[in-house]
Amino acid sequence: MWDRTSSKQCGTVVLLFSLLLASASLDTLDQTQTLTNGQTLVSLNGIFELGFFDRTTSTTTKWYIGIWYTVSREIVVWVANHDNPLNDSSGVLAISQGSIVLNDSLQNPIWSSSVNPSTPKMSDPILKLLDSGNLVLKDRNRDDILWQSFDHPSNTFLLGMKIGKDLISGVEWYITSWKSRNDPSKGNYCYKMDTLGQPELVLWDGERIKFKTGAWIGPRFSGLPEMATYENMLNFKLVSTTKEINYSIEAADKGMHLFRLIMNETGVLQRMMWDQEKKIWHEYWSWPNDMCDSYAKCGPFGTCNSNDAPICKCLPGFSPKSPKEWSMRNNSGGCKREKPLNCQGNSIGFKSVKNVKLPDTENATIDATISIKECKKRCSMNCYCLAYSLLDIRGGGSGCIMWEYDLIDIKYIEGGQDLYLKLDKSILDATGKRKIHVLIGIMVPSTVMLLLLLTVHCIRQRQRKKKTGYADLGQDKRNYNKSDSLHYTELPMFDLETVIAATANFSDANKLGQGGFGIVYKGVLSGGEEIAVKRLSKDSSQGLNEFMNEVMLIAKLQHRNLVRLLGCCIHDSERILIYEFMPNKSLDFFIFDKVRRELLSWTMRLEIVAGISRGILYLHQDSRFNIIHRDLKAANILLDGEMTPKVSDFGIARLFKREQNEMDTGRVVGTRGYMSPEYAMEGKISVKSDVYSFGVLLLEIISGKRNQGNHNLIAFAWKLWQEGKLIQLADEAIDNTDGVASEIVRFVHVGLLCVQECADDRPTMSIVLSMLSNECMSLPEPKKPVLSTKVTPESSSSPIELTVTGIEGR
Ligand SMILES: *[C@@H]1O[C@H](CO)[C@@H](O)[C@H](O)[C@H]1NC(C)=O
Ligand SMILES: *[C@@H]1O[C@H](CO)[C@@H](O)[C@H](O)[C@H]1NC(C)=O
Ligand SMILES: *[C@@H]1O[C@H](CO)[C@@H](O)[C@H](O)[C@H]1NC(C)=O
Ligand SMILES: *[C@@H]1O[C@H](CO)[C@@H](O)[C@H](O)[C@H]1NC(C)=O
Ligand SMILES: *[C@@H]1O[C@H](CO)[C@@H](O)[C@H](O)[C@H]1NC(C)=O
Ligand SMILES: *[C@@H]1O[C@H](CO)[C@@H](O)[C@H](O)[C@H]1NC(C)=O
């Protein structure tokens, strides 16, 4: 056998020689061999080659290990030591102690592959360059891969690679530009997956979003209609599970490897294919490719059309926010509504805005399981919903996206989607009329033409109706399942041993807290991922199937402001839920702490209140299941690394059987101080009892004080209201200068509306959100809250029957 170690001086010659003699081993390096300058590994299909290459700038020449195409050696698709080049060509690549190591001539380590220390020891480790261009480290006799270059991409995306995110460890796969043509160190541009909302890819220029592909709509991204052209040649795949979301491309023709996507040094993505006849790389398309691709070009509620001059317009029913800036082609301010939406009554309707790239879905609500008809109904009923659209365009279409916040990044494109925009009826009628006026205005010279046009228009309308009539959508069960599985695949099951190992056998040191339904522990999985483990108290008498149904239901509730369930574990009578870990603990840890509450500025508190209310609104109304939380309190609001509030413990009440006497077990659902009078005294639960708890929480967040004893915080707020001094409720830690005072007063006012004695008087969560965010909305006078609760569960002698009416509501 050919020995690479001995071939330092005349590598190329040996290589060519060995090509004839020992071609079978050319793609592989084992632990007895080394690779030095001049020697290479070549994939079996002869397309990719791994070895040393150099790049020369004006002053120096640097050496790297990389992978390139044999047909065009200048195109390097992967670089190992981007940021730590060799100063000369005398590096040595080898397998050493289970990882790949690149040393310089003085045995200084230059680069090495990171390998998880817990991976089993390999008896015969090999490094192999696969036909796909993937360099893998594995045991010769085993299939599992310990390390692969596809997990550490450079500036090039190849078939079989992925862009995405591991939702458990937070690891992301993405491509990054080189600094310059001759400098492979990491440049400013990268192309990543955005997993908030419906997944989409984002081109970042440093900290700034340069371009977004638009949401994934089934076969492709909304903003890249060009993808449709390649559907017979390339298979675009988006996989979304509770563990991982990734995007990859497969070739319909398995032999096709001379295809690549590159994030180039000037911040442009180029899709390149090799032209075998001309022996050149051909650029098929590149993006961003027009001014409208620039993210949020026309601001909120603006639309962009690169064939128009000017390119920016406002959505129907909207006009420029700042006409002066707008006329000077500064469109970033966007547009504002001409007539506000009236939440109550039937005064709204929808206008379809056709052929668009859908607005940014970062904050949108997504439901893959309902029809567009149901989607429309939900959007009409939700005061906060501004627009809706179809989620998945395949096979007649299915699923629902609803937007409640600014509609951003809308572009007109050939073959785009339809966006249904909520407008006041009077505006709808007016936009309709305006169009007819224009038509008649143009056509008056020729009435004949007008008639012709109208006829054609009517026929088209009829045909279109036939093709995509909404009534057909509900019936196509197959499509439902398809999109359902796209979004909600099986929930991962953890074995008990894994959970025990992660939590040091539920040790007290790992205990994070104790709630009504069990104890929460911090855990660390073997890969290093941090998790929160909730061990449910054993007396849930539910059957296994029923339990799993409920857990799957909780797993399907996904919202930015809800804690995400990662998996569960069932073993004999053990029932364990595994959640994402929240590094900033819970809200009570901040707001009731003398020192830490100083960290919470008014803006942060405002964001926290807004986030909590969105989370609750989702539970009450926007998720399919209409869940009542029953135990909202500061300790159940967790905070992630960016202080985004996440409601936790939702839906858990459902895991326990309804008949169970919750008094007996000592697990009173609900916490003193947050319980509405009708719940505390009569055990009545409704969405309005959650609103009450939210009101208490709101007052606590503003004041930094607990509502203890006989509702003393509420009593204090009520006293201040009567004296007209609501501002005095604010925590001294809040700097209330600068127009903040009026906001604080409005928030306290809303808090008082939420804690009114009579449940019917309290606003719903969607109205609460409008009240909090709309400074012009006039608020009703709050009625007197209950200032002392005579009967509380703790003091009552007879057990309280809990009627859990709302929980079953579907
Ligand atoms: C290469 O040379 C530069 C400049 O002399 C030095 O800073 C760097 O450490 C050297 N790198 C290696 C791998 O020897
Ligand atoms: C690389 O250098 C380290 C010491 O820095 C040494 O232990 C290792 O054997 C070297 N590997 C090779 C392949 O030269
Ligand atoms: C994408 O994620 C799924 C689910 O985790 C996984 O099975 C698949 O291999 C991933 N795709 C690629 C190209 O790695
Ligand atoms: C990046 O791609 C664009 C579009 O094809 C091209 O005009 C530009 O020259 C490329 N930049 C580099 C550095 O190759
Ligand atoms: C563009 O308009 C926004 C407000 O709409 C303003 O804040 C910004 O300064 C303007 N930019 C320029 C370059 O004038
Ligand atoms: C989504 O919401 C966050 C927080 O309110 C906001 O910063 C962001 O701009 C929103 N994104 C879009 C696209 O509206």
From TrEMBL:
<dbReference type="InterPro" id="IPR011009">
    <property type="entry name" value="Kinase-like_dom_sf"/>
</dbReference>
<keyword id="KW-0418">Kinase</keyword>
<keyword id="KW-0732">Signal</keyword>
<dbReference type="InterPro" id="IPR001245">
    <property type="entry name" value="Ser-Thr/Tyr_kinase_cat_dom"/>
</dbReference>
<dbReference type="Pfam" id="PF01453">
    <property type="entry name" value="B_lectin"/>
</dbReference>
<dbReference type="GO" id="GO:0004674">
    <property type="term" value="F:protein serine/threonine kinase activity"/>
</dbReference>
<dbReference type="InterPro" id="IPR017441">
    <property type="entry name" value="Protein_kinase_ATP_BS"/>
</dbReference>
<feature type="region of interest" description="Disordered">
    <location>
        <begin position="786"/>
        <end position="810"/>
    </location>
</feature>
<dbReference type="InterPro" id="IPR003609">
    <property type="entry name" value="Pan_app"/>
</dbReference>
<dbReference type="InterPro" id="IPR000742">
    <property type="entry name" value="EGF"/>
</dbReference>
<keyword id="KW-0472">Membrane</keyword>
<dbReference type="InterPro" id="IPR000858">
    <property type="entry name" value="S_locus_glycoprot_dom"/>
</dbReference>
<dbReference type="InterPro" id="IPR008271">
    <property type="entry name" value="Ser/Thr_kinase_AS"/>
</dbReference>
<dbReference type="InterPro" id="IPR024171">
    <property type="entry name" value="SRK-like_kinase"/>
</dbReference>
<protein>
    <recommendedName>
        <fullName>Receptor-like serine/threonine-protein kinase</fullName>
        <ecNumber>2.7.11.1</ecNumber>
    </recommendedName>
</protein>
<dbReference type="GO" id="GO:0005524">
    <property type="term" value="F:ATP binding"/>
</dbReference>
<dbReference type="Pfam" id="PF00954">
    <property type="entry name" value="S_locus_glycop"/>
</dbReference>
<dbReference type="Pfam" id="PF07714">
    <property type="entry name" value="PK_Tyr_Ser-Thr"/>
</dbReference>
<keyword id="KW-0547">Nucleotide-binding</keyword>
<feature type="transmembrane region" description="Helical">
    <location>
        <begin position="436"/>
        <end position="459"/>
    </location>
</feature>
<keyword id="KW-0245">EGF-like domain</keyword>
<feature type="signal peptide">
    <location>
        <begin position="1"/>
        <end position="26"/>
    </location>
</feature>
<keyword id="KW-0808">Transferase</keyword>
<dbReference type="InterPro" id="IPR036426">
    <property type="entry name" value="Bulb-type_lectin_dom_sf"/>
</dbReference>
<keyword id="KW-0675">Receptor</keyword>
<dbReference type="GO" id="GO:0005886">
    <property type="term" value="C:plasma membrane"/>
</dbReference>
<dbReference type="Pfam" id="PF08276">
    <property type="entry name" value="PAN_2"/>
</dbReference>
<keyword id="KW-1015">Disulfide bond</keyword>
<keyword id="KW-1003">Cell membrane</keyword>
<feature type="domain" description="Apple">
    <location>
        <begin position="343"/>
        <end position="424"/>
    </location>
</feature>
<keyword id="KW-0812">Transmembrane</keyword>
<keyword id="KW-0067">ATP-binding</keyword>
<dbReference type="InterPro" id="IPR001480">
    <property type="entry name" value="Bulb-type_lectin_dom"/>
</dbReference>
<dbReference type="InterPro" id="IPR000719">
    <property type="entry name" value="Prot_kinase_dom"/>
</dbReference>
<keyword id="KW-1133">Transmembrane helix</keyword>
<dbReference type="GO" id="GO:0051707">
    <property type="term" value="P:response to other organism"/>
</dbReference>
<keyword id="KW-0723">Serine/threonine-protein kinase</keyword>
<dbReference type="GO" id="GO:0048544">
    <property type="term" value="P:recognition of pollen"/>
</dbReference>
<feature type="binding site">
    <location>
        <position position="534"/>
    </location>
    <ligand>
        <name>ATP</name>
    </ligand>
</feature>
<feature type="domain" description="EGF-like">
    <location>
        <begin position="288"/>
        <end position="324"/>
    </location>
</feature>
<keyword id="KW-0325">Glycoprotein</keyword>
<feature type="domain" description="Bulb-type lectin">
    <location>
        <begin position="26"/>
        <end position="150"/>
    </location>
</feature>
